[in-house]
Design goal:
The complex is a heterodimer. Chain A is of the alpha/beta class. Helices cover 35% and strands 21% of the residues of chain A. In chain A, a hairpin with a 2-residue loop joins strand 11 and strand 12. By secondary structure, chain B is α/β, with parallel strands linked by helices. Chain B contains 10 helices and 12 strands. In chain B, strand 4 and strand 5 form a beta hairpin. The chains are: A alpha/beta, B alpha/beta.
């Protein structure tokens, strides 16, 4: 049984007609051997999705959902067990040697903790310049300097910052440095792993705006990994919801937030604290009981069923395939019959 | 406000560093009423955690605490380790963002839970065990008997936080201090812990002080809110007032920066310009003035005092006109 690929026309961009996928991931699985125990940890289980050119695809899930593992597998920081990732006519997951190194020019990443991702002994100038030295060796130093200065200004830093070290910056400023470095080579695909979640509230929106501006300006295709649903709503065109390594739902932003198709998506949305004391107190109980099971022993059938209030016998027996429901892709046996209930609840919560 | 359980006056927490003296908390006055749920919201460097730590004398070595913290009339500032040790865990308990801060990885959950009861209350081993199992059930830990015998690493983050809350409750505390207790948890587990805190508040009548950076969490649980910025309280109000009619530009800006999950979505998010304040280099006037859309000359002269903005509503701002101007 192969999981269907998401129809590429789901985004609401003007170019719905022929949106070439920048990245097409098929049947990606990642499992790790567990030391000591003769068991496997299935971190990512048969995940397929595509990122259209110029699109931002959000990947949301709780800890243990496998969202960061997907990013790491695509960047070849952990080995994929099976699957392919078509990008620029090659398979990202099997590239080796020179081809792999050459591909790094086109795929860049922004990390959650910007300070941990920057070399503390290098100045800002050296950090931003490094990708050019590596991939544009013919560039003269004056031209490199122009590039560095232009990028510095573009991410909202000042020339005076060039000769400082990362630890002299606040989290938001350090993330700007990380963004500048990631964009120096004008990559085609940008992977953002929780890019704003470690930042102060007042700085989050600055960086979210900046990333959105740069995405348009550079025509980036972005894989945006986050647990913060509000950030995802602002930043992403389409969203993939992961649970225990499996795709629960892939939907456009409006479909996901207005008419969630999977009971897990609905529960996630309901769990976010409401910034309104009256509404927040109207709902007393937590929407989901229990916690995400261990990926070492995922439930048989639907992995979400142990926490799902709609689960029935079939859910323990058959893995629900990801299939089209409305404009979304949903992996739930009962999606059609639940659609009205979930929609009514979503509207009542507004 | 003579009935206050905890009365804090002119509290200052200072550290001496290479750049001179730094005031992490700079003149805070606050009362905590019995059974009240007080929220403290602020960003890094706001002093919110230092305020909480000062109540139990838990600030880092080198901290200078000045001012007054009275618990049921008893002065805690300068009270000494013995007096504070008597209160810690027995009358006033604290839970942290990372539950492992409070858990010993080498001891079973049961040992750690019964330890405080036997120490503070002289309970027998059997009685302490009975009570510990009750507490684990009270914080909704499934299979309490099994968890009792396990070590912290065998529990998830959410479970560990429940254990720490159970420990805090083991001695019928008056005050529960919670420093970002849900920040490290997943959103579905956060919702469970917030529901648990609300439930415990009604059952135990303990007052809770919850420190967070998340206004959404405040809206879920707090009765009254302090908004802190650069070591000072900039606004203090009943929770509904704070959300309906914030009177400090910083509070208003924080509120506007929340992305709604439903309804219209702005093309760009409203932002607060600049960076969070550096406590080692604060301006002479209002610390928020360099980032404030409403700042004018007076703001650079001296920090604005907290003044009445309505019933039960204080704010520290020179701007007297309406808020709501979009930058």
């Amino acid at each position: 049984m192969s999981s269907p690929l998401p129809p590429p026309g789901i985004t609401q961009s003007a170019s719905v007609a022929t949106p070439a996928a920048a990245l097409e991931v098929s049947n990606l699985s990642v499992r790790f051997a567990v030391r000591g125990a003769k068991r496997w940890l299935q971190a990512v289980d048969d995940v397929s999705f595509s990122v259209a050119r110029g699109e931002t695809l959000g990947v949301v899930g709780e800890s243990g959902s496998g969202k960061s593992t997907i990013a790491r597998a695509l960047l070849r920081l952990v080995p994929a067990t099976t699957g392919t990732a078509r990008f620029r006519g090659a398979d990202l997951l099997t590239l080796a040697g020179h081809d792999l190194r050459a591909m790094r020019e086109h795929v860049q990443i922004i990390f959650q903790d910007p300070l941990a991702a920057l070399d503390p002994r290098m100045t800002v100038a050296a950090i931003i310049e490094e990708p050019l030295l590596e991939f544009r060796p013919a560039l003269r130093s004056a031209a490199r300097r122009d590039h560095v200065l232009a990028m510095l200004g573009r991410v909202g830093l000042l020339p005076a910052h060039l000769h400082r070290f990362p630890h002299e910056f606040s989290g938001g400023q350090a993330q700007r440095i990380g963004i500048a470095r990631a964009l120096m080579l004008e990559p085609e695909l940008l992977v953002c792993d929780e890019p704003i979640s470690a930042l102060d509230v007042s700085v989050k929106s600055q960086i979210a705006n900046l990333l959105k501006d740069l995405q348009v300006e550079f025509g980036l295709s972005v894989l945006f990994i986050a647990h913060d649903l509000a950030a995802v709503r602002f930043s992403c065109d389409r969203i993939l919801v992961l649970y225990l390594g499996r795709v629960m739902e892939i939907a456009s932003r409006s479909a996901l937030f207005d008419t969630p198709g999977h009971p897990y998506t609905r529960a996630l949305l309901q769990s976010v604290p409401l910034p309104d004391p009256v509404l927040a107190r109207a709902r007393r109980a937590a929407p989901l009981s229990g916690e995400i099971p261990s990926p070492m022993s995922p439930p048989a059938g639907c992995v979400f069923r142990t926490r799902c209030r709609f689960a029935e016998a079939r859910c323990a027996e058959e893995i629900p395939p990801l299939r089209s429901v409305g404009t979304s892709l949903v992996a739930c046996h009962r999606s059609e019959e639940l659609a009205d209930t979930l929609r009514r609840e979503a509207m009542a919560a507004d | 406000m003579s009935a206050a359980l905890l009365a804090i006056r002119g509290l200052r927490v200072s550290y001496r560093g290479s750049l001179g003296v730094l005031h992490a908390v700079d003149g805070v006055d606050v009362d905590l009423e019995p059974g009240e749920f007080l929220g403290v919201v602020g960003e890094s460097g706001s002093g919110k955690s230092q305020l909480l730590l000062a109540i139990l004398g838990l600030n880092a070595p080198g901290a200078r605490i000045a001012g007054s913290i009275r618990y049921r009339g008893e002065e805690l500032v300068g009270a000494g380790e013995r007096a504070l040790g008597r209160l810690r865990g027995a009358r006033i308990a604290m839970i942290f963002q990372d539950p492992m801060t409070a858990l010993n990885p080498y001891l079973t959950i049961g040992t750690q839970l019964t330890e405080t009861m036997r120490h503070h209350q002289g309970a027998s081993r059997a009685a302490a065990r009975r009570r510990a199992l009750e507490l684990l059930a009270a914080v909704h830990i499934p299979e309490p008997e099994r968890r009792f015998a396990q070590h912290p690493h065998e529990l998830s983050g959410g479970m560990r936080q429940r254990v720490v809350i159970a420990m805090a409750l083991s001695c019928d505390v008056d005050i529960l201090l919670a420093d970002e207790p849900t920040t490290a948890l997943d959103v579905t587990v956060q919702a469970q812990i917030l529901a648990l805190l609300r439930e415990l508040r009604t059952q135990t009548r303990a007052a809770i002080v919850l420190v967070t950076h998340d206004l959404g969490v405040i809206a879920e649980v707090a009765d009254r809110v302090l908004v802190m910025y650069a070591g000072r309280v900039v606004e203090q109000a009943r929770v509904q007032q704070l959300f309906d009619s914030a009177r400090h530009p910083y509070t208003e800006a924080l509120r506007r920066s929340i992305v709604p999950l439903t309804g219209p979505l702005p093309a760009r998010l409203p932002t607060i310009g600049g960076q969070p304040p550096n406590p080692a280099a604060l301006p002479p006037g209002c610390a928020f003035a360099p980032r404030c859309a409403y700042a004018f000359d007076t703001c650079a002269t001296a920090p604005p005092p907290l003044t009445q903005a309505g019933p039960d509503h204080l704010r520290a701002c020179y701007h007297t006109g309406p808020l709501g101007r979009i930058r």
